[in-house]
Amino acid sequence: MKTTIPEELKQNVPQTSWGKFLVATPVIMTVLATLLAGLASSEMTKAQYDRAYAAQIQAKAGDQWGYFQAKKARGAMQLNTLELLQATVEIHPLSAASLGGLSPEATAAIAQNQLPTIARSQMDEQVRVALTALEESKPETEIAKLLKLVNPKTLDAALRAAKNDAIAFDTAVKPVGQSLEQLEKSLATNRPAARDFAAAKMRLTATRYDAEARLNQTIANLLELQVRQNNISAERHHRRSARFFLGMLGAQAAVIVSTLAMAARQRNLLWTLAATAGIAALIFAIYVYLAV
Questions:
Q1: Distance of alpha carbon 158 from alpha carbon 152, whole angstroms
Q2: Is this prediction's pTM over 0.85?
Q3: 265, part of any domain
Q4: Domain total in the chain
Q5: C-alpha span between 115 and 173 (Å, rounded)
Q6: How far is CA 247 from CA 20, 73, 236, in A?
Q7: What does the pLDDT look like over 65-84, one tens digit per residue?
């Protein structure tokens, strides 16, 4: 938008500082309107980005929920098969002789249904509180209030730590599984011992699936928190965009009024209205930028 001032109108304006300011009012208001339009567009772009990013994170959360459900289902299948086996044949506790050659971790795992433990990462207190609220299905308004206290970088760090915990657990369990597979092959010719071992392995496998499902659940819930946090940010940018747009309308109104003032005889009143509208638009823009 470009504003030009006719020379004949400039001559009718007092050659004072205030007069010069009045002459420049349309130009100033045009610059202000352009600035506010740019801010409104920028905020809308940020809102759209946050919405799109939230959709991507939601897809990742869906994958984790899929893993969670699959592992829960597999664990339940293992327990159901174990119950059928126990109802069909007599199952005995594993003897020390049948477990010869196993590592202490593998022996504890198969004999006591005890998986290797890992040191879980410490979670930020504010993230933990928000996570607990989500797991307990608290109202969305309450979760949103808690998330406003959480730094996005802190939440991202908690998510990375949860993924590392899942990797660490898989790394700790893998050698045990390999050792048990080797022992299972060596017991293939001893049917009673193989049957008892298979029953113990089913119980251990169900326990492992349950532990992995809980890790996937934590990752999925942290991703859900990220989705909500990005949606909150998108809503904030959307509100800021709408208010910057209103400020732009005010500045454009000032341009129109000041332009009309230069074409009218009673310029003082109209110029005052134009200046007031422009100052109000500027103050409103500063308020939106700093406070909203």
A1: 10
A2: no
A3: yes
A4: 1
A5: 7
A6: 24, 56, 17
A7: 999 999 999 999 999 999 99
With CA atoms as reference, report the closest residue to 175 among 83, 250, 108. 108
Could you say which DSSP state residue 6 is in? -
The C-alpha atoms of residue 130 and residue 45 are separated, in whole angstroms, by 28
Whether 2 is in a domain gets the answer: no
Distance CA(183)–CA(265), nearest Å, equals 103
Is 205 a domain residue?
Answer: yes
Give me the sign of the Cα torsion angle 52, 233, 59, 122. positive
CA–CA gap between residue 126 and residue 200 (Å, rounded): 41
Give the Cβ contact number of residue 39 at 10 Å: 20
Range of the domain at 215: 7-291
Q: Quick one: which of 16, 13, 210, 6 has its CA closest to 113?
A: 210
Q: What is the CA radius of gyration of the chain?
A: 34
> How far is it, in rounded angstroms, from Cα 226 to Cα 152?
8
The string of pLDDT tens digits covering residues 184-214 is 888 777 888 888 888 889 999 999 999 999 9
Contact between 215 and 161 under an 8 Å Cβ cutoff? The reply is no
